[in-house]
Amino acid sequence: MLEEVEDHQDIIVRVAALDIAKASLVCCSRVPGPAGTGKRSQEVMSYPTMTRSLQVLADRLMDLRVSRVVMEATSDYWKPVFYLLEAYGFEVWLVNAKDVKHLPGRPKTDRLDAVWLCKIAERQMIRPSFVPPPPIRKLRDLTRYRAALISDCTGEKNRVEKLLEDAQIKLSVVASDIFGVSGRDMMAQLIAGQRDPKVLAQLARTQLRVKISQLEEAFVGRFSDHHAFLLTRMLARVDTINADIADLDSRIEAEIAPFASAVARLDEIPGVGTRVAQVIIAEIGLDMTRFPTPGHLTSWARFAPSVKESAGRKKGKGTTGHGDAYLAGALGQAAVSAAKTNTFLGERYRRIARRRGKQKAIVAIGRSILVIVWHLMSDPDARFHDLGPDFYDNRLGPERSKRNHIRHLEALGYKVTLEPAAA
Description:
Blueprint: E1 15-20, E2 24-32, E3 40-48, H1 51-63, E4 68-72, H2 78-87, E5 91-95, H3 110-122, H4 134-166, H5 171-174, H6 181-192, H7 197-201, H8 212-218, H9 225-256, H10 260-267, H11 274-284, H12 294-300, E6 309-310, E7 313-314, H13 325-339, H14 344-356, H15 358-378, H16 391-396, H17 398-411
Parallel strand pairs: 1-4, 4-5
Antiparallel strand pairs: 1-2, 2-3, 6-7
């Protein structure tokens, strides 16, 4: 049975494609040929990636009246080219390299790659990647750098713990956080030359004082001047990174001030704090017209299973693939926090974790949070409303819930007899 489908065969009349490397790029332009011939004219030229050369490229594209410029996402080399052409007013598309691979077995050169990209671009056989507007790009640079610094700080703290273990100082066995006030005072005294376990243990404060005897045992080791030298540098590095993170937090607060209402609305979602909300906005922006439905957003973020089917058999076992690592990290953090709450998301996590494990439950809750974010960002007047932890019980109905409980108890070997409770 034949069915009608939408299939647009229109071509982009004036299009250019760029194959970008670090020092140079190849530009292929395709425009209408001489009038009446019905042919296409093609120009392939190389340009250095210095700013003045890129300006010459932009002027040439304007002379050819090119309407769309397409380029591959090659490392970070695409950014200066993209930003300059965007400032000139071109419609610039960034495309995923795996979507524009040349046919296998064909010769591969920069020139041929540019021509191939231009041909499939003019026939609209590719789709653009998401590149946020400049204000969101600035915010994204800041939040991603903060994530890198936090990772560096964590690595340095791990080195400190390994150094103490090397000196047979077992402080981390007794104290849950060796970088608290008590831990820092103790390490400062070690650096200053104090080696008496009893003196060091007496530096404990508040709840840690109940472990004085354990601390005395923990400080019996062989901490030397060599360890003191390394520990001094490591702690200084930790303090420097923490100071840089504090400065970044202040700058992020200033950059995100115009989006304060969006941050406040996202903050209402269980598990989503201010920092997670900042990362979400930095990674997906505020304009949800780029993602027509929540499904488009979750698919782009790789929080939806990919579809792979051949000969009637589905492959991949429901894997999601790799998406935006920064967004995935923020959603994972939010999902873990939401799992500890007495909310709809918390109950949903526990239900899925019982059946399919914690990892799949975290991904599922991350996807649910992303769907909520889409709705909140699509409607500026929308506010989050929690369905409550009893949503599933109320939706299933008391009879079905009763049957499920009876079945579970019988599976454990119990004989169930029900009596109505007194009025």
